Amino acid sequence: MDFLYNVSVDPILQIVEDPVFFIQVIAEGLMAGVMYSLVALGFCLIYKASGVFNFAQGIFIVFAVMCMITVFEYGVPIIPAVIIAFLAMVALSWAIERIVLRNMVNQEEIIMFMATIGLSFFLEGFGQTIFGGDSKLVPVEALHLGRDALIVPMFGSSIRLQELDLTAGVIAALLVGILALFFQKTPVGRALRAVADDHQAALSVGIPLQWMWVVVWSVAGLVALVAGIMWGASSSVDFSLVVIALKALPVLILGGFTSVPGVIVGGLIIGVGEKIAEIYWGDALGGSIEEWFAYVLALVFLMFRPQGLFGEKIIERV
Amino acid sequence: MIYREGGQIKTSYAADQQLFPINQDRWFVYGFIIFLFVIPPLFATEYHYEVILYPILSLGLAALGLNILTGYCGLISLGTGGFMAIGAYSAFKITTAFPDLNIFIVFILAGLISALFGILIGLPSLRIKGFYLAVTTLAAHFFVEWAINRIDWLSNYSPSHTIGGPPRDMFGITVMGPEANPAAKYIIMLIVVVALGFVAKNLVRGRVGRSWMAIRDMDIAAELIGIKPLQTKLLAFAISSFYIGVSGALYVLMYLESVDPEAFEILTTSFPVLFMIIIGGLGSIMGAFMGAAFIVLIPVLLRNLFPALGIDIASHVIQHIEFMLFGGLIVFFLIVEPNGLARLWQIVKEKLRLWPFPH
Fold first, then answer.
1. Measuring CA to CA, which of A267, A315, B84, B187 is 20 to 30 A from A203?
2. Which of A109, A120, A318 shows the shortest C-beta gap to B221?
3. Does B256 score more than 90 pLDDT?
4. How far is residue B337 CA from its own chain's centroid?
5. More confident site: A155 or B162
6. CA distance B357 to B359
7. What pLDDT is recorded for position B20?
8. Which residues from A are below 8 Å from B291, CB to CB?
């Protein structure tokens, strides 16, 4: 009885008693959701354009931000450091296309997926060899990222928002806007959508498939760099950050693998759901339920829409 | 010359439908199994058991289970670690609650509990497909990981939720626990693995296996010819989880002896086992074990490689290089032979049939 009360009645009472705190929780959830979306965005881009479920995106993020920090620590100003890190990601994308993807055209999805896990192992070893295994700090001051908290008064009380989270939100929104324009309006974007639709058809109308892959993996590298900076800014960066790839998976399936808006909405739903569940239901269920809650939430959504909220409808023919 | 089935004429249905219709195959497989039962107990040292034989047997069984699900029924699962944990913790609970129970029965019961959970996790598979399903099986994994970390009862209230194999005897020989005879332990594991391997081999060539393969190749078409997708998929989940559960019990109670929940992390269980079946070959019983041997042996070889070459490097650098080589090898292997070691083995056999006169 106690348990039932704690699960069904108590959380509702808490929400009604302190609505401002509830709003605070939702705001924090939205902010966390934006972070998840940033990570998931890289997965989504690559899946859209090359049909590869790129597990190595997690290590991409660490790799990009580690590269930027290392260059910065050598005394290079911040803007060139960011550009150098981006160029490094372009070089990496080119190498991956050359060595791995080119040889795996038309393989089954699961084989490609396993190859990216292998790639992820390789990059983890490679990154630790050249950048060292220690954790590093993102140069927050040089990047002009605020770390203060904003107090917003509301209904006689107030809620706190982290400036960093707000910046992340704005950057994510900008990124998505630019990417949407890039995909919809530019010739390269159109070619990318063609590639996503059908590799062979795209090749036969003269779209350089290999070149397109380099482009989209580089864009994913840029997204990874941004995501890495935003994740790293709140604490520090080391190679254990790779596991954020696992945080992005429920966001991806909830939104649908192929949809950029899906990733954003999915991230926000997961972020808010996770925070609310953890704060109001966490204790009743035994604590740290956020480890699995995102997955269960995604599972519930998938039961009703098996292709994710915004994914393309799966049409099966015999 | 050596490998040629010409002249082996079958005169009865039983002979025609036996497990290995070609004599050479049969001799090879039975010979190899006898070799496994006889030679390692005579010559292997503690090191060989701990580093090579135990992990290959226990993880190979997990790979076999996953191969039933992924290779034969086409359902990708990343929740292997979770099912191994279920098997391990239930075996631990059963054997500590009933110390006199024969450990073979303990393993089977642990497998059955794991199979029950497998059916539960398999329920969404009717609607959710492909990578969406793979990610939902992760839900199972993370839930189990959370549960074994939270529920003290599962580990008999041990401080850091550590479980281990308590001492158990069989025919007067200690076969489990810290003082167990390594050879006896090995024999027990081998009996379980060989028995389950034969069961799997028979399952996949019968009606059940054929319906799994029909579902894998195209589920709508399979449904049209009268295969019930729900039953078939759930059966695949149940049997696969049974195997993975038993392997988890072997992995913990026999091989590792004492573990905390960390041992079931996704990067140390689910992904390596998936690697095993991809590298060994999807949809092949033997491939699962070949893949397991490959994945277990590569790090061992790499670790011995640098000292053998006389190169002296700091251990953490070696670890990083190991990571690079391991990842690189996997990518290389997938590019060169995406169908896995089982396919290579098949090519060798085809070549052997014509050898030494290919024309």
1. A315
2. A318
3. no
4. 21
5. B162
6. 6
7. 84
8. none
Disruptive mutation site among A299, A300, A301, A305 for chain B (greatest number of B CBs within 10 Å) = A299
Taking CA atoms, what residue in B is nearest to A101?
Answer: B335
Q: Which residues of B touch A115 (CB under 8 A)?
A: 330-331, 334-335
Question: Who wins on pLDDT, A135 or B196?
Answer: B196
CB contact at 8 A, A53 and A112: yes
What CA–CA distance (Å, rounded) separates A7 from A13?
Answer: 11
* Closest partner CB to A115 (pick from B76, B139, B334): B334
Which one of A122, A288, A305, A317 would you mutate to disrupt binding with B, by most B Cβ within 10 Å of its Cβ? A122
Round to whole Å and give the CA distance between A22 and B14: 71
Residue A147 confidence class, pLDDT cut points 50, 70, 90: low
Q: B92-101, pLDDT tens digit by residue?
A: 889 888 888 8
Q: Is residue A307 within 8 angstroms of chain B, CB to CB?
A: yes
Q: What is the pTM of this model?
A: 0.88
Distance CA B331, CA A102 (A): 12
Output the pLDDT for position A1.
64
The topology (CATH level 3) of A20-304 is ABC transporter involved in vitamin B12 uptake, BtuC (1.10.3470)
> What does the pLDDT look like over A53-71, one tens digit per residue?
888 888 888 888 888 888 8
**Amino acid B194: pLDDT:** 94
Amino acid at residue number A116 = T
Cα distance between residue A124 and residue A133, in whole Å: 10
- What ipTM score was computed for the predicted complex, to two decimals? 0.82
d(CA B313, CA B284): 39
- Helix B340-354 vs helix B285-309: angle between axes, to the nearest 10 degrees? 100
State whether residue A291 sits within 8 Å of chain B by CB. Answer: yes
CA distance A66 to chain B (A): 16
> Are the CB atoms for A148 and A232 separated by under 8 Å?
no
